[in-house]
Specification:
Layout: H1 48-66, H2 72-96, H3 99-127
Helix pairs in contact: 1-2, 1-3, 2-3
Length: about 130
């Protein structure tokens, strides 16, 4: 391997915002030679209010669709259809809208679908007959 002759090219300057502003307090002398650590922030944080809004709206959605069923099978099918629609809305909200509401919709729809399929499973175990056919 050959040694490099001559000087190395200078490093590129850091990107904008990497260095602290001029009026920032100076670090202690022990860490003065180290560059400051960058600060990363979430551009669209998920907060409690949109999450609870999505949770409440989806709960009302599943109560309305669940009340359309007159038997366990119809209740389960209405819940499955409502869950598919809710997941499509959650996907659309996650891409184009508020991610907090999307998380609330996804959590509520997963919980509602789990409850409906728990009842289906309990009936199946008790009667050895699959109730959705």
């Amino acid at each position: 391997m050959a040694d490099r002759r001559g000087s190395w090219p200078a490093a590129l300057p850091p990107p904008p915002g990497y260095l602290p502003p001029r009026n920032a307090p100076q670090p202690s002398p022990q860490f003065a030679a180290m560059p400051p650590r960058p600060t990363y922030r979430e551009p669209h944080p998920v907060t409690a209010a949109p999450f609870l809004t999505g949770l409440a709206a989806t709960t009302a959605w599943f109560v309305l669709f669940g009340s359309l069923g007159s038997s366990l099978a119809s209740y389960a099918w209405w819940t499955i259809g409502a869950a598919l629609a809710a997941w499509a809305v959650a996907l659309l909200l996650a891409v184009l809208g508020d991610r907090g509401v999307a998380v609330g919709v996804a959590v509520a729809s997963g919980l509602a679908l789990s409850i409906a399929l728990l009842f289906v499973t309990l009936r199946w175990v008790a009667t050895y007959d699959w109730p959705l056919w």
